[in-house]
Design brief:
279 residues, 0% strand, elongated
Length: 279
């Protein structure tokens, strides 16, 4: 058969590139989940500090203002978490694998935990569709549209838009729907040379999306490092003072007042960072 070797080589390269893509996908999803978990940990630490200082009377106005800013940002983050947890349940991410879509690395990566991590990192968009009522590719595309802020049209398999959201949801959608390797039916009715050409095209697409995932991972890592840097300084301060039963600002030592002021400033910055979306 003509060009049989060419076909085999191209398909072998495609399989290899898909493996590399899947590895990067896993790395990206893990990075997103680590970032999300880091934010949850910092939220609890900031909340504990806020409540500890809130009970002290006679605080300076600047401390009161920062505590109010902290409370506002924490409430905003908590409200988003509650909303997203409910929406993730409604989007049925945990059961998409049984919805008739092709299995792949994306199925495992695209569980509820990953959905929460991606949603809190990038935001979501309302699709106006009850995804639980859909099935197959329609369910997958609708879920991705919600998660990707509309980067993927709910009614179709085409990818629209660009940027970090596209990098996150486009490849995930490919992994779930299997469209990145859409050569199965094509192979049965095509010549070897054409199959090789098609496989080569898919290889280039995978490489492109893999590189987007790498860039996205780097961006998220930078956000995570900045947040953890702030948390490190914050922890150094609050872990080294104990206000005990002191209930009024005048009972604090000058050093304690300074530490509370510094910690409140950093806590306000971190609380705001919890709600900042990666773009």
């Amino acid at each position: 058969m003509f060009n049989n070797g060419l076909k085999k080589e191209a398909l072998s390269s495609l399989k290899k590139e898909k493996g590399l893509y899947d590895e990067q996908l896993t790395t990206t999803v893990n990075t997103l989940e680590e970032f999300h978990n880091s934010k949850l940990k910092i939220k609890d630490k900031v909340k504990k500090f806020h409540d500890e200082i809130e009970r002290i009377g006679g605080k300076p106005d600047n401390i009161e203002i920062e505590l109010q800013q902290i409370e506002t940002e924490l409430n905003k983050f908590d409200d988003e978490l509650k909303r997203l947890e409910s929406e993730v349940d409604n989007q049925n991410f945990g059961t998409l694998a049984g919805a008739g879509v092709a299995a792949g690395a994306g199925i495992a990566a695209f569980g509820p935990a990953a959905a929460m991590a991606i949603a809190t990192t990038f935001g979501t968009a309302s699709t106006g569709t009850a995804i639980a009522t859909l099935s197959g590719a329609a369910a997958t595309n609708a879920a991705l549209a919600w998660l990707g802020g509309g980067a993927i049209a709910a009614g179709g398999g085409g990818i629209a838009g660009g940027g970090a959201l596209l990098a996150a949801t486009g490849p995930l959608g490919w992994a779930i729907g299997g469209t990145a390797l859409a050569v199965g039916g094509f192979m049965a009715n095509s010549k070897n040379k054409e199959i090789a050409r098609k496989a080569t095209e898919q290889i280039e697409k995978l490489k492109e999306e893999k590189n987007k995932l790498k860039e996205l991972t780097t961006t998220v890592e930078l956000h995570c490092k900045e947040l953890e840097k702030q948390e490190g300084v914050f922890s150094y301060i609050v872990d080294n003072f104990n206000l005990g039963k002191k209930s009024h600002w005048t009972e604090l030592t000058e050093s304690e007042m300074k530490d509370v002021g510094s910690a409140a400033n950093i806590a306000a910055v971190m609380a705001k960072m919890l709600n900042k979306k990666v773009a």
